[in-house]
Amino acid sequence: MSTISKPVPSIVLVHGGFVDGSGWEGVYRLLRADGYDVTIVQNPTLSLSDDVAVTKRVLDQKSGPVILVGHSYGGAVITEAGNDPKVAALVYIAAFAPDKGESVQTLIANPPPGAPVPPILPPQGGFLLLDRSKFADSFAADVRPEQAAFMADSQVPWGVEALSGAVISPAWRAKPSFYLVATNDRMIPPTAQRAMAERARATMAETPGSHAVYVSRPDAVATLIKQAAVAVSR
């Protein structure tokens, strides 16, 4: 008896705040080497609604199922954009996974006792930046020092409106989710990551890594994405 296999999903990668999509290069190369079609969204991070719209324009270009992947603030973006019918699964990489009415701002409002405080500078003109001198330690502690310095000096200002944008309809309530916890993260506490993953009933994996785990551990990130792709292809 013959079986009909589902089409192999394509992969769409969504970056977080303070950075652009270039940090996905290592993950991109690994996934491409395994034959996946991979697209990287370049969000302006001005507002959540704008970033969801930009992400949906990328999804509109796809003809088949998509694994939608978000890092950090990108998790909020995929939580809303993931309602697109083409999205077969969500993958959160050390990411925010807000529920209805929640935003990144509400999720970081009450950090666990003793948790590191991200070195976010006071807003200037409606935009946020991280203290460059503390960027490596808080965001990219396991990234090569020269690369971490480049990331600090090439920061993308993060819009306050993006931080406060509330999710309307969380896609993880209806679609399978996967979550990679970075156990050495000093931006989003690992305890908070696990709590969001458990709430979303996500398939959870953990790896030693900083908040920039998608840069420092592309192998672990690509492995979970491929696990999601295989799961929805069965």
From TrEMBL:
SUPFAM superfamilies associated with the record: alpha/beta-Hydrolases
Transmembrane residue ranges: none
Range of residues in the leader sequence: none
Native species: Labilithrix luteola
Protein name: Putative signal peptide protein
PANTHER family listed in its UniProt record: AB HYDROLASE-1 DOMAIN-CONTAINING PROTEIN-RELATED, ESTERASE_LIPASE_THIOESTERASE DOMAIN-CONTAINING PROTEIN
Residue ranges constituting the AB hydrolase-1 domain according to the UniProt record: 11-223
Domain of life: Bacteria
Listed InterPro entries: AB_hydrolase_1, AB_hydrolase_fold, Sec-Metab_Biosynth_Hydrolase
